[in-house]
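Look at a sample.

——
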Amino acid sequence: MIPNIDTKATATNAAAMLQNYHRMRAIARRPIVTGAGPLTGMPASAPEAGRTERHMVEAINARAFVDAATQAAQTVREVYGEEKYTILKCLYLGAPVTAENIMLRLGMSNTAYYHAKEDALVGFAEAFPVDWGELLVVSGGDRHESN
């Protein structure tokens, strides 16, 4: 971990970012259609062309977000271990699992779980690219500059 990190604020930021994962994954799964639509011989109308372009950009951005989040979670797995990765996967990346079920699965007490969850979220924040917004908060309120 990076020194002087406000772990609670950083974990909150990471959790807020991860709340978008399922929506972004759904958008990322949409096919990117580059055609002009039906072959009528007429060009696409400006609003229709703009809508198609917007959907393409949304899908490309969503794929980049999902890839970045998946890679950050894999970094947590490599650096912090399987337990922290499992917490991220169960809470944010896979089918939702309750905290109680995660604690049972990992054989953790309530306190140990919440500490591990915070550590997992901070690890995710450290690994997640700042292109999507800085998640790390340095103690004292200053933002952490990385890269």
